[in-house]
Design brief:
The chain has a five-stranded antiparallel sheet. The protein contains five helices and five strands, in the order E-E-E-H-E-E-H-H-H-H. It is α+β, with helices and mostly antiparallel strands. The N terminus and C terminus are likely disordered.
Length: about 140
């Protein structure tokens, strides 16, 4: 019985870490109105989902903006649970790269660094090896 979970079935080693913890990069599909949002989980609770990111329809424009060093502040949003239809991890699908991989290849920035609400902290930006050029100085006012 030591290899069984509390549900009575075999223990699943893959369940040692929950996939939808703060910091996970996800795609949220919402209803009323129907839209998709790409971002990093800030919090997930019974009331809803808090994300830092952008609407999926704006993804390409966002990547170009970040690549060109234009000022960028991720949207920090809360979606009540009744609007959430589906939340999926941003993972590659066969030979298709994930949105996170596409973002990195277009911008040279790790998505988690770009989407972190505190990404405007110059001390943190200076320690990010991917944050150089126009991205490194835009926070200093």
């Amino acid at each position: 019985m030591e290899n069984e979970s509390s549900s009575g079935g075999p223990a699943a080693p893959a369940k040692t870490r929950e996939p939808f913890l703060p910091g996970a990069l996800v795609i949220a599909t919402l209803c009323n109105p129907r839209e998709k949002f790409w971002g990093m989980i800030l919090a997930l609770a019974a009331e809803g989902l808090s994300l830092s990111g952008a609407e999926l329809a704006s993804f390409e424009d966002l990547a170009v903006m970040v690549r060109d060093g234009e000022p960028f502040t991720p949207a920090v949003v809360f979606f009540p649970m009744h609007r959430i239809e589906r939340v999926e991890l941003d993972l590659p699908d066969g030979s298709l790269p994930s949105l996170s991989q596409r973002f990195f290849s277009k911008t040279g920035l790790e998505p988690s660094a770009a989407l972190a609400p505190s990404n405007r902290d110059p001390a943190k930006a200076a320690n990010d090896p991917h944050n150089s050029g126009p991205h490194a100085s835009k926070d200093r006012v």
